[in-house]
């Protein structure tokens, strides 16, 4: 996969060379590039933003630097790929979108700054994505989040393909509780079923606890989760246990 990011602050992306994402770059799974679109401005003062026609607060990013930077990406890569604009008005990013983006061969992410974008910049874009109902100083942190969540889903990125499948949101439920050694730490014990070696019982426990955690912390997710008759029975048990406790 090739990933291009257009940003005014390329140094903010230095952490993307670390950890799992950095390893995917080292191993050639990902070709990660950050372009400073200020380098493409034709303004003699090196400006990339200007006042808003009709009045308004702040400054808008001008179209010319971003259009020319995008042309440079296309010339180098052979295409623009799927172009994503980080914008508070975009659709909220989630695991489903990450899984969709992980199927692409090339992503180009525009990480803006200042008050916003000249509307004509949106003609370059295939998708507009937001992290949620809040506003950041710029799109860099959002872009890094999208890259991280997407790249870790690529084949061989995590080393164990099951890791991404079992995680929170990938199944529609939050992830079940997990434990490691020691089995008894300061009186806090690992559930007996996980030490039993009985794979069917362990699988049932994991699924029930995933349902429990989702019910406790994100009950809204259950509205979109297709509960089987067995799930409904487990959920009934969970609600009864919660009332007792």
Cα shape? elongated
Low-confidence stretches: none
Topology, number of strands? 10
The SSE order reads EHEEEHEHEEEHHEEHHH
Question: So what's the oligomer here?
Answer: single chain
Order of strands, main sheet, comes to 2-1-6-5-8
Q: How big a fraction of the residues is strand?
A: 15-25%
Fraction of helical residues: 25-40%
**Average pLDDT level:** 93
Largest sheet composition: 5 strands, parallel
* Radius of gyration, CA atoms, in whole angstroms: 23 Å
Describe this structure in words.
With 245 residues, the chain is an alpha/beta fold. The chain contains 8 helices and 10 strands. Strands 2-1-6-5-8 form a 5-stranded parallel β-sheet. It has a 3-stranded mixed β-sheet with strand order 3-4-7, with no helix packed on it. Strands 9-10 form a two-stranded antiparallel ribbon. β5, α3 and β6 form a beta-alpha-beta unit. α3 packs across α4 and α7 packs across α8. The protein is elongated, with a radius of gyration of 23 Å. The model has no long low-confidence stretch (mean pLDDT 93). Keywords: Cytoplasm, Methyltransferase, S-adenosyl-L-methionine, Transferase, tRNA processing. It comes from Weissella thailandensis.
